[in-house]
Amino acid sequence: MSAPSLEVTGLAYAYPDGHQALYGVDLRISRGERVALLGPNGAGKTTLVLHLNGVHRAGAGHVAVGGLPVEKRNLQEIRRRVGVVFQDPDDQLFMPTVADDVAFGPANFGVTGPALDSRVRGALDAVGMAEHADRSPMHLSGGQRRRVALATVLACDPEILVLDEPSSNLDPVARRELAEVLVGLDRTMLMVTHDLPYALQLCDRAVVLDAGVVVADGPIRELLADDEFLRRHRLELPFGFRVPDA
Ligand SMILES: Nc1ncnc2c1ncn2[C@@H]1O[C@H](COP(=O)(O)OP(=O)(O)OP(=O)(O)O)[C@@H](O)[C@H]1O
Question: How far apart are the CA of 19 and the centre of ligand 1, in A?
């Protein structure tokens, strides 16, 4: 059996000022799963994500991506395997054209020539942005920029996609279009979000962090239908929203 896309075991971390942000977090994500990472402000979600791509070094515990330990000697391969799509696409887009931006990552990992062209085409096709390849990313709408940012990551063929608030600042059409793209990708995903309906639409499973501890890990539908659980962990569905029956 192949290694899970992500395996986090007993992960603990304190910031240099002594603030303990994670306490013994365990998380295992199988290949192809889409998992929502939920939790109130300050729960430790970003801190956890920054351990997946090796920005933070675990104080205790262990993180592996596709079976490869997140350690200094593996960092280049780990950064290819963990594709983080940041909340602000402008953090990811800085080249003159869309195609240049999408080529940047794989080119850095040594892909060249026709193989590089085919990566770029494949990634832009996957997000429905092929006809915008020669445009400047600066001239695209927010929703289009979010999709190009996703393509820059897909072009590196990551083991796991990490999406940071993928629905923020999107209008309802762009939100739906992005959801369709994401569902069509057939890739392991960890989606960090406060947008509970979007998480419900895209993920079967949710992991809830609160104060650095995993307080729930299970079917998202059940978690979001538990009003008392939501209240206890400062999670809130939009006014009037009801979790549809299965
Ligand atoms: N550089 C830092 N130094 C000290 N403490 C930090 C630092 N960055 C974050 N923290 C603390 O670590 C805890 C977890 O923060 P983190 O950013 O991981 O939460 P989060 O769940 O991503 O929150 P949000 O939903 O607001 O983005 C918080 O208490 C935060 O104040």
Answer: 9
For 210, residues 6+ apart whose C-beta sits below 8 A from its C-beta are: 39, 40, 43, 233, 234
Give yes or no for residue 19 CB within 6 A of ligand 1: yes
DSSP reduced 3-state for 177: helix
**pLDDT tens-digit profile of 123-175?**
999 999 999 999 999 999 999 999 999 999 999 999 999 999 999 989 999 99
Q: Tell me, using a 6 A CB cutoff, whether residue 131 lines ligand 1.
A: no
Ligand 1 atom at shortest distance from the alpha carbon of 50: 18
Find the 210 Cα to ligand 1 centroid distance in Å. Answer: 11
Protein residue with least CA distance to atom 6, ligand 1? 15
Angle at 168 between CA 124 and CA 7, to 5 degrees: 75
* Among 156, 174, 46, 153, CA closest to 106: 156
Residue 21 phi/psi, 5° resolution?
A: -95, -30
Above 0.90 for ipTM, yes or no?
A: yes
Tell me the C-alpha to C-alpha distance, in Å, between residue 182 and each of 68, 117, 172: 25, 22, 15
Beta bridge partners of 36: 191, 206
Residue nearest to atom 12 of ligand 1 (CA): 21
CA distance 65 to 71: 11
List Cα–Cα distances, 176 to 147, 173, 196, 198, in angstroms. Answer: 12, 5, 14, 9
Quote the pTM value: 0.95
* Segment holding 78, helix H or strand E: helix 75-81
